[in-house]
Design goal:
This protein has a single domain, classed as Cytidine Deaminase, domain 2. Helices cover about 25% and strands about 20% of the residues. Strands 2-1-3-4-5 form a 5-stranded mixed sheet, with helices on both faces.
Amino acid sequence: MIRAGIPTQVSEIELRYRSKVAASDRPECLTSESAHELFRDWWDADCMELFEEFNVLLLDRANRAIGIYRASQGGTVGTVVDPKLIFGAAIKCRAESIVIAHNHPSGQLRASQADIVVTNNLKQAGKLLHIPLNDHIILSPEGGYYSFADDGLI
């Protein structure tokens, strides 16, 4: 309700997306191994043992990488995952699906209960938005990885 004599100000919301890579030049991501390689190449290896980080690989309709979005950085044992930020980025760049990844500074390649809950929450949100979650990758500083999809958890 607008009250007489009181000026009302509303901010304009502007959405923009500009790709720096032609669609034909984007790397394909068809397997957990290819997702792992894309994340591993992008990740700062010097920080992998220091703190947890949560990243999102945004894919187009042909499963080509649009880009990687750093959703959060945390401490040595966890990081906050906000679905609004993850899917906001996916919607903004018109992603058709996503792969999520985080690292375990300890090197453990087992999914924690918190990892499973986050994965299920993002999977449900993705269904609602028609942006499926293809996989959740856990990376180890030693070079290994764990795939939720390969283990039948997605």
